[in-house]
TrEMBL record:
Keyword flag Protein biosynthesis: no
UniProt protein name: 3-methyl-2-oxobutanoate hydroxymethyltransferase
Gene that this sequence comes from: panB
Binding locations of Mg(2+): 44, 83, 114
Gene Ontology biological-process annotations: methylation; pantothenate biosynthetic process
Keyword GTP-binding: no
Known partners and oligomeric status: Homodecamer; pentamer of dimers.
Alphabetized SUPFAM superfamilies for the sequence: Phosphoenolpyruvate/pyruvate domain (SSF51621)
Superkingdom assignment: Bacteria
Amino acid sequence: MNKKMTITSIKKAKGEKPLVMVTSYDALFAKLLAPYSDMILVGDSLNMSFAGKRDTLSTTLEQMIYHTSAVCQGAQNSFIICDMPFGTYTNKEDALKNAIKVFQETSADSIKIEGGEDKADIISYLCSNGVAVCGHIGLLPQAVRGEGGYKVKGKTEEEKLQLIKDARAVENAGAFCMVIEGVKAEVAAEVASCVSVPVIGIGAGKDVDGQVLVFSDMLGLFEEFTPKFVKKYMDGASLVKEAMLNYSNDVKTKEFPKEEHTY
């Protein structure tokens, strides 16, 4: 059993070893993924990969608490981060109330919120009240409707400078690490070098402090589309379909159950 990561050991990993983060939404997969990951993110991406919605915005706090509780049960020796869903941290008071609810009803080690300079005061308020915060800058999935789509960041000097400001603001507010998503690789590398806490990339190149992927993308289970930044480590959908076909055929031909499967 791997030793559980802590905020201290996560921060110390900066410049020492790349951090491995993966999403999970249930106890079954959390238990399978935990031995090979430093952190597990219970992402609001479950709204798309599990619920079939077109974006993450309709995810509720109750959903996140349910799935985070399940992941905590399956990966009791892992550092668990719960995504705060859209609309749950629009001001300091609501953010703290909702983060406390997550901490009281799950065993999550941290929450994650999207935003840079504009969310620094909220991050600071949460941290000053005992809530561990993982930041999220760059492409913000919860802003997809406001921005008119998923748009790669860091294409201009202005965007680069803003990303650096965002990262520094998130760090100064007290976040122990942050995700950087959908950012030009050379810009993400520069952003990571400007702060002393780990910067975990997704679609942000290799020269950051770690990587995170949605597990159903990584395992090839999600067929609707594959983002450019995803590497499929198995063709999970085909394997599941093949297994289901074999099961179906065995039932129809009465090859299953055999005597060894019968009481």
